Amino acid sequence: MNYFSRSLALFQYPVMPLATIGLIAASAFSLMPSPAQAQATDFDYDNCASELLAAGIAPDAAAAACAMSYRPTEISSCVSGVLNASAVLPESALVACSRDRRPDEVATCVSNIHADLVVNDSEMVLEHCHRTILPERYAACVVGIANEVDYTTEDSLTTCIAAGYKPLDIEPSYIPLD
Questions:
Q1: Which of the 8 DSSP states describes residue 163?
Q2: Average pLDDT for residues 39-63, to the nearest whole number?
Q3: What pLDDT does 162 receive?
Q4: What mean pLDDT do residues 134-163 have?
Q5: pLDDT confidence of residue 87
Q6: Rounded to an integer, what distance in angstroms lies between the CA atom of residue 129 and that of residue 157?
Q7: 111: pLDDT strictly greater than 90
Q8: Whole-model pTM?
Q9: What pLDDT was estimated at residue 21?
């Protein structure tokens, strides 16, 4: 007994060539380097080391920082950006930039705070920008609080970094009083 019609059998034959073409195309795309794989090259390590040496970092520290980083040019550009925007020691900038997961945002954070506010302690700004999870958002918080609430830079740094900071007595409150 025949359960399949001949018209259904005619549609089954083109499936094999199309599946083969699809597998070949998928394997070709998997062999291409992704942007993350293509970012770190020996040229990037050269640039990182030369920028750190130009910033005043000791040769051994520059070599170690570039060798340990996944994206070496982000570390060197962070150090350069921090040093251009603030008056901190190059070693402090290197420590903050090399130990952060978003070094480019750390430099942006430091430069935004220094550009918009009067800063007495650049080391404190660098430390707070390094400690926060989202440095650019943190800088926006610091600048906004300092400008609108008339806080000092140090007070707004402390207020925005405090993870447990919760304003009290804000209406309406849906939290039970128990």
A1: T
A2: 84
A3: 81
A4: 88
A5: 87
A6: 9
A7: yes
A8: 0.66
A9: 75
Instruction: From 150, 140, 146, select the one nearest 109 (Cα to Cα).
Output: 140
Does 25 score more than 80 pLDDT? Answer: no
Q: Phi first, then psi: give them for residue 57, nearest 5 degrees.
A: -85, 140
Q: Distance between CA atoms of 14 and 2, rounded to whole angstroms?
A: 22
- Cα 56 to the center of its chain, rounded Å: 24
Kindly tell me the burial class for residue 41, based on how many C-beta atoms sit within 10 Å of its own C-beta (0-12, 13-18, 19 or more): exposed
Contact between 44 and 18 under an 8 Å Cβ cutoff? The reply is: no
Alpha helices (H) along 86-150: 90-98, 103-116, 122-131, 135-148
| Domain range summary for the chain, segments of one domain joined by + | 41-161
CB within 8 Å of 84: residues ≥ 6 apart:
111
- Three-state DSSP at 96 gives helix
Inform me whether the pLDDT recorded for 93 exceeds 60: yes
In total, the chain counts a number of residues equal to 178
Residue 53 contacts by C-beta under 8 Å, 6 or more apart in sequence?
A: 59, 62
The rounded distance, in Å, linking the Cα atoms of 133 and 126 is 13
Q: Which residues contact 75 (CB under 8 A, 6 or more apart)?
A: 48, 52, 65, 66, 69, 94, 97, 98, 103
